[in-house]
Amino acid sequence: xxxxxxxxxxxxxxxxxxxxxxxxxxxxxxxxxxxxxxxxxxxxxxxxxxxxxxxxxxxxxxxxxxxxxxxxxxxxxxxxxxxxxxxxxxxxxxxxxxxxxxxxxxxxxxxxxxxxxxxxxxxxxxxxxxxxxxxxxxxxxxxxxxxxxxxxxxxxxxxxxxxxxxxxxxxxxxxxxxxxxxxxxxxxxxxxxxxxxxxxxxxxxxxxxxxxxxxxxxxxxxxxxxxxxxxxxxxxxxxxxxxxxxxxxxxxxxxxxxxxxxxxxxxxxxxxxxxxxxxxxxxxxxxxxxxxxxxxxxxxxxxxxxxxxxxxxxxxxxxxxxxxxxxxxxxxxxxxxxxxxxxxxxxxxxxxxxxxxxxxxxxxxxxxxxxxxxxxxxxxxxxxxxxxxxxxxxxxxxxxxxxxxxxxxxxxxxxxxxx
Length: 419
Known about the structure:
By secondary structure, this protein is mostly helical. It has helices at about 10-15, 20-55, 55-85, 85-110, 115-145, 150-175, 180-200, 215-225, 230-245, 250-260, 265-285, 295-315, 320-345, 355-365, 365-380, 385-400, 400-419. It has one domain: Growth Hormone, Chain: A. The chain contains 17 helices and no strands. Helix 2 runs antiparallel to helix 7, helix 3 crosses helix 8 and helix 9 (about 230-245) runs parallel beside helix 15. The chain is globular.
């Protein structure tokens, strides 16, 4: 049967763990493999553009293409999930990513790669993520249900961080030994494996239902989401964290080369350190039966991320930066898992789930936009100053809105239970 239509509380009711379910295992392996390919792309494309232009600005500008794709297609991607189903949408997304990345690899190998071509590849990658993100989260919710969503997302997050570690080491080693072109080809091959795993899950035909136009359904999803105060508050925080927090990864190639005097292998280890910190945070959450005060955890993770970014930006020693990159990973991963859980738990209308998740994934598109802003600031003040400014704004905002954010989430969860 199609994954999207599994009973969302099946595992809780039967007492089975997600790791004992074949559908969950396929989703786990597919996502872990795909994440490795995408993370390798971020490092490889950033290093390629930096090598071609020697400009932090162009590193950020190229990455912003991915943000534009996510911004322009995020809500539509969620609408596709509601119309086509999660698995079909995920297949289309991963196939688009494979084609665009393999094309960049071929262009690089034959020696005709240009910055504008990388920007187009970045745009295609953004569109693919805009479709894949709501599809993945909808699949996860169907398997886990409300009661176990946080721990299941943490389990998936732990697997993802293993991919981040592997991606950093693999990309750095490949760039240093065989070059950027073969690294792109390897990424495409890894995504091909993810697609094969996805296709191994049987799919049943969907019933044809008379629906409104895609644009009308997307607009209904937007207006529905903005009418709910909790979702508005959460999406505002998500927007801020994507622009100023996760864009830290886009500036890593610049910091590694220009500030820490580390080559591509050193960059890979920095990314892997980020992954180790994320992994530790994921395991800590996954091994907890449940965390009642999710709103407080979200606020603490946001504040901690801001502090960690400030400290990382202040470090001029590679060994210290490795440790701090891990601390940043712990903070951002804890925030990310908790945010994804709270977004899912505050969607009262199941028919709108894909569109709300699409709007949430649209905020992810601001990570590359944040990279563009950071690149512009870095060109004038330095990449470490750009990251430090972002951490400071996150710290100030999260501290100032802590009580308001926590209370509105608690109020929303109380009303959900009463209904």
